[in-house]
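$ run holo --ligand "guanosine-5'-diphosphate" --emit C-alpha coordinates
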Amino acid sequence: GRASPPLAALSQVLRLERSRRTGIVFPLQKLERYLAPGTDTAPFRLFQPGLAALQRAEALFRSDRGHPIDYVSSAVRVDHAPPPALPEVCFIGRSNVGKSSLIRSLFSLAPEVEVRVSKTPGHTKKMNFFKVGKYFTLVDMPGYGYRAPQDFVEMVEAYLQERRNLKRTFLLVDGVVGLQKTDNIAVEMLEEFGIPYVMVLTKIDRASRGVLLKNVLEIQEFVKENTQGCFPQLFLVSSVEFSGVHLLRCFVAHVTGNLPTVEAS
Ligand code: GDP
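-- output --
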Protein backbone atom coordinates (compact mmCIF):
# COMPACT_ATOMS: atom_id res chain seq x y z
CA GLY A 1 0.00 0.00 0.00
CA ARG A 2 0.85 3.67 -0.06
CA ALA A 3 2.83 5.17 2.80
CA SER A 4 0.81 7.40 5.08
CA PRO A 5 1.52 11.08 4.65
CA PRO A 6 3.36 13.07 7.33
CA LEU A 7 1.18 14.13 10.29
CA ALA A 8 -1.45 11.51 9.48
CA ALA A 9 -0.72 9.96 12.88
CA LEU A 10 -0.91 11.72 16.23
CA SER A 11 2.53 10.42 17.17
CA GLN A 12 3.95 12.57 14.39
CA VAL A 13 1.95 15.63 15.43
CA LEU A 14 3.10 15.28 19.04
CA ARG A 15 6.69 15.87 17.95
CA LEU A 16 5.84 19.38 16.75
CA GLU A 17 6.30 22.39 18.96
CA ARG A 18 3.28 23.37 21.01
CA SER A 19 1.72 26.12 18.93
CA ARG A 20 2.03 24.21 15.66
CA ARG A 21 0.59 21.15 17.39
CA THR A 22 -2.46 23.08 18.61
CA GLY A 23 -2.98 24.41 15.09
CA ILE A 24 -3.02 20.88 13.69
CA VAL A 25 -5.08 19.18 16.38
CA PHE A 26 -7.42 22.05 17.37
CA PRO A 27 -7.45 24.48 14.42
CA LEU A 28 -10.54 26.29 15.69
CA GLN A 29 -8.90 27.06 19.05
CA LYS A 30 -5.93 28.48 17.21
CA LEU A 31 -8.24 31.21 15.89
CA GLU A 32 -9.57 32.15 19.30
CA ARG A 33 -6.86 34.59 20.17
CA TYR A 34 -7.65 36.71 17.12
CA LEU A 35 -11.25 37.27 18.16
CA ALA A 36 -12.51 40.56 19.50
CA PRO A 37 -12.65 40.59 23.32
CA GLY A 38 -16.06 39.55 24.55
CA THR A 39 -16.74 37.20 21.63
CA ASP A 40 -18.56 34.11 22.88
CA THR A 41 -16.06 31.28 22.50
CA ALA A 42 -18.23 28.62 24.15
CA PRO A 43 -19.09 27.05 20.74
CA PHE A 44 -15.35 26.68 20.12
CA ARG A 45 -14.87 24.23 22.95
CA LEU A 46 -17.87 21.94 23.13
CA PHE A 47 -15.97 18.95 21.87
CA GLN A 48 -12.46 19.10 23.21
CA PRO A 49 -11.14 15.60 23.81
CA GLY A 50 -7.92 14.79 25.60
CA LEU A 51 -5.02 12.85 24.19
CA ALA A 52 -6.29 9.46 25.36
CA ALA A 53 -9.58 9.89 23.48
CA LEU A 54 -7.78 11.14 20.37
CA GLN A 55 -5.53 8.10 20.48
CA ARG A 56 -8.37 5.68 21.01
CA ALA A 57 -10.18 7.18 18.02
CA GLU A 58 -7.05 6.97 15.89
CA ALA A 59 -6.76 3.27 16.65
CA LEU A 60 -10.22 2.79 15.10
CA PHE A 61 -9.01 4.38 11.87
CA ARG A 62 -5.87 2.23 11.74
CA SER A 63 -6.51 -1.04 9.97
CA ASP A 64 -4.86 -4.35 10.73
CA ARG A 65 -5.61 -8.03 10.24
CA GLY A 66 -8.11 -8.19 13.06
CA HIS A 67 -9.56 -4.80 12.22
CA PRO A 68 -10.19 -4.42 8.49
CA ILE A 69 -11.28 -1.10 7.01
CA ASP A 70 -12.84 -1.63 3.61
CA TYR A 71 -14.85 -0.12 0.85
CA VAL A 72 -18.04 -2.20 0.95
CA SER A 73 -20.27 -1.17 -1.92
CA SER A 74 -21.90 1.62 -3.84
CA ALA A 75 -25.59 2.27 -4.20
CA VAL A 76 -27.83 4.59 -6.15
CA ARG A 77 -30.84 3.71 -4.06
CA VAL A 78 -31.18 3.48 -0.34
CA ASP A 79 -32.74 0.02 -0.59
CA HIS A 80 -29.48 -1.13 -2.20
CA ALA A 81 -27.44 0.09 0.75
CA PRO A 82 -25.78 -2.48 3.00
CA PRO A 83 -27.92 -3.67 5.92
CA PRO A 84 -28.07 -1.00 8.64
CA ALA A 85 -26.18 -3.17 11.10
CA LEU A 86 -23.67 -0.63 12.43
CA PRO A 87 -23.86 3.00 13.50
CA GLU A 88 -23.29 5.17 10.44
CA VAL A 89 -22.06 8.64 9.54
CA CYS A 90 -22.31 10.30 6.15
CA PHE A 91 -20.36 13.06 4.42
CA ILE A 92 -22.13 15.42 2.10
CA GLY A 93 -21.18 18.62 0.28
CA ARG A 94 -20.98 20.48 -3.00
CA SER A 95 -18.82 18.98 -5.74
CA ASN A 96 -15.22 20.10 -5.31
CA VAL A 97 -15.64 21.01 -1.64
CA GLY A 98 -12.84 18.57 -0.77
CA LYS A 99 -14.94 15.59 0.31
CA SER A 100 -12.91 12.82 -1.30
CA SER A 101 -9.69 14.41 -0.06
CA LEU A 102 -11.04 14.56 3.48
CA ILE A 103 -12.25 10.96 3.46
CA ARG A 104 -8.87 9.92 2.09
CA SER A 105 -7.20 11.81 4.96
CA LEU A 106 -9.45 10.20 7.55
CA PHE A 107 -8.50 6.78 6.14
CA SER A 108 -4.84 7.58 5.57
CA LEU A 109 -3.81 5.06 8.26
CA ALA A 110 -5.59 2.36 6.28
CA PRO A 111 -3.80 2.91 2.98
CA GLU A 112 -5.45 -0.07 1.30
CA VAL A 113 -8.80 1.74 1.37
CA GLU A 114 -9.66 3.09 -2.07
CA VAL A 115 -11.71 6.26 -2.00
CA ARG A 116 -13.23 6.24 -5.44
CA VAL A 117 -14.16 9.35 -7.27
CA SER A 118 -16.56 9.53 -10.14
CA LYS A 119 -16.43 13.03 -11.47
CA THR A 120 -17.24 12.41 -15.08
CA PRO A 121 -20.14 14.70 -15.89
CA GLY A 122 -23.26 12.72 -16.64
CA HIS A 123 -21.95 9.74 -14.72
CA THR A 124 -24.33 8.23 -12.21
CA LYS A 125 -23.52 9.51 -8.78
CA LYS A 126 -23.48 6.94 -6.08
CA MET A 127 -23.28 6.61 -2.35
CA ASN A 128 -20.11 4.78 -1.37
CA PHE A 129 -20.11 2.73 1.81
CA PHE A 130 -17.00 2.04 3.90
CA LYS A 131 -16.88 -0.32 6.83
CA VAL A 132 -14.60 0.37 9.76
CA GLY A 133 -14.13 -3.02 11.38
CA LYS A 134 -17.12 -3.97 13.47
CA TYR A 135 -17.52 -0.42 14.74
CA PHE A 136 -19.21 1.83 12.20
CA THR A 137 -19.83 2.59 8.53
CA LEU A 138 -18.96 5.82 6.76
CA VAL A 139 -20.80 6.95 3.65
CA ASP A 140 -19.42 9.18 0.95
CA MET A 141 -22.51 10.84 -0.47
CA PRO A 142 -22.44 12.13 -4.05
CA GLY A 143 -21.44 15.77 -4.39
CA TYR A 144 -24.27 18.12 -5.22
CA GLY A 145 -24.15 21.11 -7.49
CA TYR A 146 -25.99 24.12 -8.62
CA ARG A 147 -28.31 22.09 -10.84
CA ALA A 148 -28.67 18.92 -8.83
CA PRO A 149 -30.71 16.47 -10.91
CA GLN A 150 -33.99 15.33 -9.40
CA ASP A 151 -32.95 11.69 -9.10
CA PHE A 152 -29.95 12.81 -7.06
CA VAL A 153 -32.08 14.87 -4.71
CA GLU A 154 -34.45 11.95 -4.32
CA MET A 155 -31.64 9.52 -3.54
CA VAL A 156 -30.13 11.79 -0.89
CA GLU A 157 -33.50 12.66 0.61
CA ALA A 158 -34.51 9.01 0.81
CA TYR A 159 -31.20 8.09 2.41
CA LEU A 160 -31.36 10.85 5.01
CA GLN A 161 -34.98 10.15 5.81
CA GLU A 162 -34.89 6.37 5.90
CA ARG A 163 -31.47 5.34 7.12
CA ARG A 164 -32.19 4.26 10.66
CA ASN A 165 -28.57 3.73 11.73
CA LEU A 166 -27.45 7.21 10.62
CA LYS A 167 -25.95 8.86 13.69
CA ARG A 168 -24.61 12.09 12.22
CA THR A 169 -24.29 13.88 8.90
CA PHE A 170 -21.14 15.87 8.17
CA LEU A 171 -21.94 18.79 5.89
CA LEU A 172 -18.79 20.09 4.21
CA VAL A 173 -18.47 23.78 3.45
CA ASP A 174 -15.57 25.33 1.55
CA GLY A 175 -13.43 27.32 4.01
CA VAL A 176 -12.27 29.73 1.32
CA VAL A 177 -15.68 30.76 -0.02
CA GLY A 178 -17.83 30.06 3.05
CA LEU A 179 -21.50 29.10 3.09
CA GLN A 180 -23.03 29.29 -0.40
CA LYS A 181 -26.61 29.26 -1.66
CA THR A 182 -26.19 25.68 -2.83
CA ASP A 183 -25.19 24.64 0.71
CA ASN A 184 -28.61 25.80 1.85
CA ILE A 185 -30.20 23.00 -0.17
CA ALA A 186 -28.51 20.56 2.18
CA VAL A 187 -29.16 22.64 5.30
CA GLU A 188 -32.86 22.91 4.48
CA MET A 189 -33.11 19.18 3.83
CA LEU A 190 -31.42 18.30 7.11
CA GLU A 191 -33.48 20.80 9.07
CA GLU A 192 -36.71 19.63 7.48
CA PHE A 193 -36.00 16.00 8.40
CA GLY A 194 -34.73 16.92 11.86
CA ILE A 195 -31.45 15.09 11.32
CA PRO A 196 -28.46 15.85 13.56
CA TYR A 197 -25.57 17.26 11.57
CA VAL A 198 -22.35 19.18 11.93
CA MET A 199 -20.60 21.59 9.58
CA VAL A 200 -17.03 21.01 8.49
CA LEU A 201 -15.03 23.83 6.97
CA THR A 202 -12.59 22.44 4.38
CA LYS A 203 -9.32 23.59 2.76
CA ILE A 204 -8.45 25.90 5.65
CA ASP A 205 -4.80 25.95 4.53
CA ARG A 206 -5.96 27.94 1.51
CA ALA A 207 -7.85 30.62 3.43
CA SER A 208 -6.07 33.60 4.97
CA ARG A 209 -6.64 34.01 8.69
CA GLY A 210 -8.97 36.96 8.05
CA VAL A 211 -11.11 35.09 5.56
CA LEU A 212 -11.23 32.05 7.80
CA LEU A 213 -12.30 34.09 10.83
CA LYS A 214 -14.98 35.84 8.82
CA ASN A 215 -16.36 32.54 7.51
CA VAL A 216 -16.22 30.88 10.93
CA LEU A 217 -18.07 33.73 12.64
CA GLU A 218 -20.63 34.01 9.85
CA ILE A 219 -21.37 30.31 9.93
CA GLN A 220 -21.58 30.25 13.72
CA GLU A 221 -24.09 33.07 13.59
CA PHE A 222 -26.03 31.29 10.87
CA VAL A 223 -26.09 28.06 12.87
CA LYS A 224 -27.25 29.87 16.00
CA GLU A 225 -30.00 31.84 14.27
CA ASN A 226 -31.27 29.44 11.64
CA THR A 227 -30.72 25.85 12.66
CA GLN A 228 -32.01 23.34 15.17
CA GLY A 229 -30.13 20.20 14.27
CA CYS A 230 -26.65 21.55 13.67
CA PHE A 231 -23.97 21.00 16.34
CA PRO A 232 -22.83 24.51 17.37
CA GLN A 233 -19.12 23.71 17.09
CA LEU A 234 -17.63 23.98 13.63
CA PHE A 235 -14.92 21.57 12.57
CA LEU A 236 -12.06 23.04 10.54
CA VAL A 237 -9.96 20.77 8.35
CA SER A 238 -7.16 20.76 5.85
CA SER A 239 -6.50 17.54 3.99
CA VAL A 240 -3.15 18.93 2.88
CA GLU A 241 -1.79 19.85 6.30
CA PHE A 242 -3.88 17.33 8.22
CA SER A 243 -5.26 19.98 10.51
CA GLY A 244 -8.49 19.01 12.20
CA VAL A 245 -8.37 15.47 10.83
CA HIS A 246 -7.43 13.84 14.16
CA LEU A 247 -10.17 15.74 15.96
CA LEU A 248 -12.71 14.79 13.30
CA ARG A 249 -11.76 11.10 13.64
CA CYS A 250 -12.38 11.49 17.35
CA PHE A 251 -15.78 13.11 16.80
CA VAL A 252 -16.80 10.34 14.39
CA ALA A 253 -15.75 7.75 16.99
CA HIS A 254 -17.74 9.66 19.61
CA VAL A 255 -20.99 10.05 17.66
CA THR A 256 -20.95 6.39 16.59
CA GLY A 257 -20.77 5.41 20.25
CA ASN A 258 -17.22 4.13 20.09
CA LEU A 259 -15.68 6.32 22.77
CA PRO A 260 -17.07 5.41 26.16
CA THR A 261 -15.99 8.71 27.70
CA VAL A 262 -14.48 11.84 26.29
CA GLU A 263 -12.43 13.45 28.99
CA ALA A 264 -11.58 17.10 28.55
CA SER A 265 -8.06 18.06 27.53
P1 GDP B 1 -14.78 16.61 -3.89
O1 GDP B 1 -15.35 16.89 -5.24
O2 GDP B 1 -15.60 17.25 -2.83
O3 GDP B 1 -14.52 15.17 -3.62
O4 GDP B 1 -13.38 17.40 -3.83
P2 GDP B 1 -11.87 16.87 -3.92
O5 GDP B 1 -11.47 16.17 -2.65
O6 GDP B 1 -11.67 16.14 -5.17
O7 GDP B 1 -11.11 18.27 -3.93
C1 GDP B 1 -11.37 19.25 -4.92
C2 GDP B 1 -10.11 20.05 -5.16
O8 GDP B 1 -9.73 20.74 -3.97
C3 GDP B 1 -8.91 19.20 -5.55
O9 GDP B 1 -8.15 19.92 -6.49
C4 GDP B 1 -8.16 19.03 -4.26
O10 GDP B 1 -6.78 18.83 -4.45
C5 GDP B 1 -8.42 20.34 -3.56
N1 GDP B 1 -8.43 20.16 -2.10
C6 GDP B 1 -9.19 19.31 -1.40
N2 GDP B 1 -8.96 19.41 -0.07
C7 GDP B 1 -8.01 20.37 0.07
C8 GDP B 1 -7.34 20.96 1.20
O11 GDP B 1 -7.57 20.61 2.36
N3 GDP B 1 -6.44 21.95 0.94
C9 GDP B 1 -6.17 22.35 -0.33
N4 GDP B 1 -5.27 23.32 -0.49
N5 GDP B 1 -6.76 21.83 -1.41
C10 GDP B 1 -7.68 20.85 -1.22
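-- notes --
The first helix runs from residue 10 to 13.
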